[in-house]
Amino acid sequence: MRAYTRQTVLILSLLAALLAGCGRSSVGLRIAGSTSLQPLAEMLAEGYQAAGGARVSAQGVGSTAGLQALRTGVADLATISRRLTPEEVREGFRAHVIAWDVLAIAVHPSNPVEGLTLAELRRLFSGEIRDWAELGSPAGRVHLISREAGSGSREAFRELVGPIHPLTAVQNSNGVIRLAIRNDPAAVGYLSLGVARAGGVKLVRVDGRLPGEPGYPLVRPLSLVTLGPPSGEARAFLMYALSPAGQRLVADEGLLPVR
Amino acid sequence: MDVRDRLARAALAALAAVASAGVLLIALAVTVEGWPALPHLFGAVWSPEDGKFGVLPLLAGSALVTLGSLTLAVPAGIGLGLFLADVASPRLAGVVRPALQGMAAVPSVVFGFLGLNLIVPWISRVFGGLGFSLLAGCLVLAFMVLPTIAAVSEDALRAVDPALREGAYALGATPGQVAWRLLLPAAKSGLTAAVVLALGRALGETMAVLMVLGNAAAVPRSPLDPARTLTGNIALEMAYAAGRHREALFASGALLLLLNLAVTQAARLAAGGRAAR
Amino acid sequence: MRPLLSALALVVSGVMAGLVAAVAVKGAGSLTSDFLFTLPAGAGREGGILSVILSTLWLAAGALAFSLPLGVGTALYLVEYAPPGRIVGLIRSLTETLAGVPSILFGLFGFAVFVVRLGWGPSLLSGSATLAVMLLPTVIRTSEEAVAAVPQELREGAAALGAARWDAIRRIVLPQAAPGILTGALLALGRAVGETAAVLLTAGTDLALPRSPLDPGRPMAVHLYILAGEGLSDGRAYATALALVCGVLFVNIFAHLLLGGRRVR
Amino acid sequence: MMRGDTARAKLATRGLRVYYGGRAALRGVSLAVPDRSVTALIGPSGCGKSTFLRALNRMHDLRHDARVEGRILLDGRPIDRLPPEVLRRRIGMLFQRPNPFPMSIFQNVAFGPALLGVRGKELERIVCSALQRAALWNEVKGRLHQHAGGLSGGQQQRLCLARALAMEPEVLLLDEPCSALDPGATEEIERLIAELRCSMAIVLVTHSLEQARRLADRVAFFQDGRLVEEGPAAEVLERPQQQETRRFLARGDWHRTCRGNGGSQGE
Questions:
Q1: Does A168 touch chain B (CB under 8 A)?
Q2: D113 with D124: CB under 8 angstroms?
Q3: Which DSSP letter does residue B88 get?
Q4: Please, do chains B and D touch (3+ CB pairs < 8 Å)?
Q5: How far apart are CA A140 and CA A133, in angstroms?
Q6: CB within 10 Å: which end of chain C, N or C, has fewer?
Q7: pLDDT digits 0-9 by tens, D92-106
């Protein structure tokens, strides 16, 4: 009986210790936001820690949710892969561009389409053009594939090109979009250039320019967002992202550096 | 009563109360969070960017993928159950049964992963199109619920008195006739329970279908069209959602819970019918 | 009919074997001890999955730490103390209902309550608590069966010696039921390790080694989901899938061995 | 003499051996069953009576671990030349425990004919006549479409008999058909067996010496998987030739041991 009580006390105190240990997370800087930016954010976090910075946690939850996390204080920094809306700017959010992402338009390698105008692209994704024959390719229904609502890529595409037809297939990562286009001769979709370059898909000129060339229209800023001016750990991380070391990581990810 | 006994009784009762409150808490949390969006769910278009939160396409997606997978898995699963209960030698059954049990234990994300890497490209190659489709979802889901149906059917068929089997054989029935005219009707309530159980699992499955279904928020018009389920929609968009969008997702969760409770209730009735036999 | 059913069994087993073989063949090459025991680097594209494995284990252990006391307590109450009738029926139907709830709803619940309301954020703690709720029905049912299987004579024997009910439970019923309870815990563990939807929204996706329960971590199933989505390093994804399947099967086989051939579901 | 019997016999076995797994349950039995008579199989628990009976309509095919050797002849032709279904339609069987199917009384009796594709009026006629032959018609004619589970034990066994008779069998195998019934029901079944004897060959496994005495034309005594002695009932029961038979008949407690067997040999 007594031994048993002692056991109980021991277990209870262990539980208490565990709960007490919960008191503080070991993370020094919490980043949340765009999934498109997630790989870069993780690379930057690794590099930042390696360079002597605090422990950084990066969660890919989406641009809008990242801002929400920042607003509620769940995160110290948000990442977004679109521009801030005027309302968001009025709320006090400050976006600091750390890289440029190029949205590539990809089709199957067997598709003869070489280039599209922005107008054609808009008509394609709004569902106005339904057959590849209208664009001079062999006839066949167009299979659109897009990112999910809330994704920065999708919002940037909607902003730069136009609305997306509701019947469009949706996948929530660049990789699966590449996979889908690789499998289907009639598919067309948009994705980050870094992932598109992994191969298996053909990149289409937009308004006569290939993705990555100067003047290519589908470029969006990737930014770190602070609520008010950056300070403390968030500021240090931002400085690191803009430093030569940080910008090297940007280039490694297939993104365009800002410096 | 001993004092410690009373204490123990009170403490255990408290634990039981907490544990059984789980389902109520879930219902409460989901409903409270989703309440304001409830009136917005009755529409035919799900397009959060335009403030449209109609769950009809998602309901249709869930219903179609569930029914489609059961259409494939129920005959195969009951057939496998019959094979294990009536045809296979004990040694063969001893190999097939653990294999099925193992299959039931494989995490759903692995099924989704395999579907993404094997089934989706296969569909794209054979039927054309993206491959991400209702058909892919049905196939993956069918494989996932097959072991459940097979195991529960086997139990139900084994529960049929062996004397009945012998009686039917003694009348000159072929194995097929015994199965079709005697075993399956006699095990009907157990088999129904198997189907309803599978229905519940299929309806609630998230990751595997999310990965292969293509997730277009529209009612599919052919098995090769993409579709989106209630569950997949939550997993897909929850992370991004704020405001009304977030409420709508919670409300759709409440709807899913309601559907699921109905199915569970049906399962209990079916199982109850068997117990009464 | 026999040939037809045999063919069906053959086809299903063949397809299953094919799928398993696909995972095994494509994953085995990359599944080295290096892969298992080094930390991931380059956002999961390089290095191993050590932090992912540890996050998974912490999550599962945490889930059991929450759900075992609750579940076993409930089972003991149901079998030993509860007056038969309405209360038992109510508790049982509630927990059975819980067993049928889709895992994504646990995720939603955990997200709303643990992550947001309680402010635990996406963390091992939130993930564990969410998983714990999900595992409760399994733990309760298996524990209840184990406790109920203890022969009534043993309880009567203890009572005849003047032991209080609680003493009989503590010294006789619980030790006797321990293997059954353990089996239930193992089955629950297997589910916890393989679960994705419930932890996707609650445990976070951080690849770094978690150091406190409030740190986010990336469970193995979520890691596989993310790797599959990136579509960049197939070898790693297959190796992760193989590790996950092996882990879950190992736990399940162990549970079945412990159970000595009795059927569980 | 044995040869001549076999030639005239409805059903005959030669050197019949049955193994369960590696264990021999029947070690070479040669027996002839004449038409239009009752042959009773008696013997202690586990002696192979039921095993023998179940070999006659190939019920052992249903077990994965049972192996049958030797020959069984129906009308002088080996039964393994027939598909088992065809054989079993010609040989009806009644089990220890009544085993009505979980369906209506009508559907139970109609089960066999329906397998052959009989429908409509013809089926009704067959069901009605089978129920009449099993002396059940008057009791159930008003509730043919009620569930068979509602009948009493004796009625259920008669239902099973009607079910077998609906197939117009040439041979009827009875495996301790009264062991689960009360004395009244037993009497009823025995009366039916006595009537049916005029139209078919009946093989009866029984644990009751009295029953064998009342019903049997011929008696075969089994022990340890062998046929010890066989002949006209009066001779075997009153003037047994073999030592084992005499000892068995003399033992008072055999009744009890055979009751306890519960079909363990056969099932």
A1: yes
A2: no
A3: S
A4: yes
A5: 7
A6: C
A7: 999 999 999 989 999
